[in-house]
TrEMBL record:
Pfam families: ketoacyl-synt, Ketoacyl-synt_C. Transmembrane segments: none annotated. PANTHER family: 3-OXOACYL-[ACYL-CARRIER-PROTEIN] SYNTHASE, MITOCHONDRIAL, POLYKETIDE SYNTHASE-RELATED. InterPro entries: 3-oxoacyl-ACP_synth-2, Beta-ketoacyl_synthase, Ketoacyl_synth_C, Ketoacyl_synth_N, PKS_Beta-ketoAc_synthase_dom, Thiolase-like. The gene is fabF. It comes from Polycladomyces abyssicola. One of its GO terms (biological process) is fatty acid biosynthetic process. PROSITE patterns: KS3_2 (PS52004). The lineage of its organism: Bacteria, Bacillati, Bacillota, Bacilli, Bacillales. The active site is at 163 (for beta-ketoacyl synthase activity). This is 3-oxoacyl-[acyl-carrier-protein] synthase 2. GO terms for cellular component: cytosol. Its EC number is 2.3.1.179. Gene3D superfamilies: 3.40.47.10.
Length: 414
């Protein structure tokens, strides 16, 4: 059995807005969310910039006691999930909660809690470590808390696949509905790792941009002068719903999810496979799963991290998967504005892709100033573009060689 799956609600916490409208308007306006790090003293780090979530108050979404028992990434997930449910007009009291599931990924999980409680252990001893340390820190607790606070009793899981976590979670949730194991899934990704330890690790790996004096220009996917990614944080959550279930309750259908592909590079812990071989297979599988041809795709929301190897090899992967049609595709990277949200990237970028289909506007790749001969496709540079978009891909490519692609298309009642 294969059932049609539509998107009926969207929620987002991001560096450029903590609600869908603000996020989308800033995205198509090309506004950068990158600035100096404020969450800790980064003066001794080679990278001192990040795309932080601003003016987030967890008490807008939960009570103070609940908030104290959640890591920041879980707070983001709960907030985005509640936004998405409201946007979908989905009242949990009017549906079968046993048929509503949750699938929210996180690449790293509760790093804030980990750091704080380790300091407690060192400075005050083991008896002072919080009994909530483990349930606050573990990556699955975003899905767990969303389930607890919404009453969703259906399939509940988490993907932890680095930067592909959000997209894997959405794709797996899509499969769950397709196969008849749930009617609704609350799916996406959440991350909050703008912390000293994460920064130290990525700085040691020389993976992040050091354009500290021009933070808004630091994330520049596919540009010849890119020098690394910019870390971001936030959450993106979608309400996926079986088509007849959505129609029966009069839901406002935003887009349809029609395909899911994934692959493994089997190559290296951080570097993508040469020429993007694994990413190309992920895209090809997703297109085949959707029952489409490469030429049916009009737009790709690229992984586009602003790192040397990713952008070059993702470009090669697109050429491998699409052939001559690669040069007719519109491609852009949300990360040019919101940074790299790691495990939340796929969730937030899926929200953006759904809005791109709904509004028929492609967000730009900002900071594209100097063309790279090895990145020679159409990256929708610097300004949003109105275009006819029938189907779109969203790519996520994670450390460890984890590749995930979902295919969204405009909804047609046929």
């Amino acid at each position: 059995m294969s059932r049609r799956v539509v998107i009926s609600g969207l929620g987002v916490i991001s560096p450029i807005g903590n609600d869908l409208s603000t996020f989308w308007n800033n995205l198509i306006a090309g506004k950068s969310g990158v600035g100096p790090v404020t969450q800790f003293d980064a003066s001794d780090y080679s990278t001192r910039i990040a795309a932080e979530v601003k003016n987030f108050d967890p008490l807008d979404y939960m009570d103070r006691k609940e908030a104290r028992r959640m890591d920041r990434f879980v707070q983001f997930a709960v907030a985005a999930a509640r936004q998405a449910l409201e946007h979908a007009g989905l009242d949990m009291n009017q549906v079968d909660a046993n048929r509503v599931g949750v699938y929210i990924g996180s690449g790293i999980g509760g790093l804030t809690t980990w750091e704080e409680q380790y300091q407690v252990l060192l400075n005050r001893g083991p008896n002072r470590v919080s009994p909530f340390f483990i349930p606050m820190m573990i990556s699955n607790m975003a899905a767990g808390q969303v389930s607890i606070l919404t009453g969703a009793k259906g399939p509940n899981s988490t993907s932890v696949s680095a930067c592909a976590s959000g997209t894997h979670s959405i794709g797996d949730a899509f499969r769950i509905i397709q196969h008849g194991d749930a009617d609704v899934m609350i799916a996406g990704g959440a991350e909050a790792t703008i912390r000293p330890l994460a920064f130290a690790g990525f700085c040691a790996a020389r993976a992040m941009s050091t354009r500290n004096d021009e933070p808004e220009k630091a994330s520049r996917p596919f540009d010849k002068d890119r020098d690394g990614f910019v870390m971001g944080e936030g959450a993106g959550v979608l309400i996926l719903e079986e088509l007849e279930h959505a129609k029966k309750r009069g839901a406002n259908i935003i887009a349809e999810i029609v395909g899911y592909g994934m692959s493994g590079d089997a190559y290296h812990v951080t570097s993508p496979a040469p020429e993007g071989e694994g990413a190309a297979r992920s895209m090809a599988h997703a297109i085949q799963d959707a029952g489409l041809k490469p030429e049916d795709i009009d737009y790709i929301n690229a992984h586009g991290t602003s790192t040397d190897l990713n952008d070059k090899f993702e470009t090669m992967a697109i050429k491998k998967a699409f052939g001559d049609h690669a040069y007719k595709l519109a491609i852009s990277s949300n990360k040019s504005m919101i940074g790299h949200l790691l495990g939340a990237a796929g969730g937030v970028e899926a929200v953006a892709t759904a809005m791109t289909l709904k509004e028929q506007i492609i967000p730009p790749t900002i900071n594209y100033e100097t063309p790279d001969p090895e990145c020679d496709l159409d990256y929708v540079p610097n300004e949003a573009r109105r275009a006819r978009i029938r189907a779109a891909l969203s790519n996520s490519l994670g450390f460890g060689g984890h590749n995930a692609t979902i295919v969204l298309k405009t909804y047609e009642d046929a």
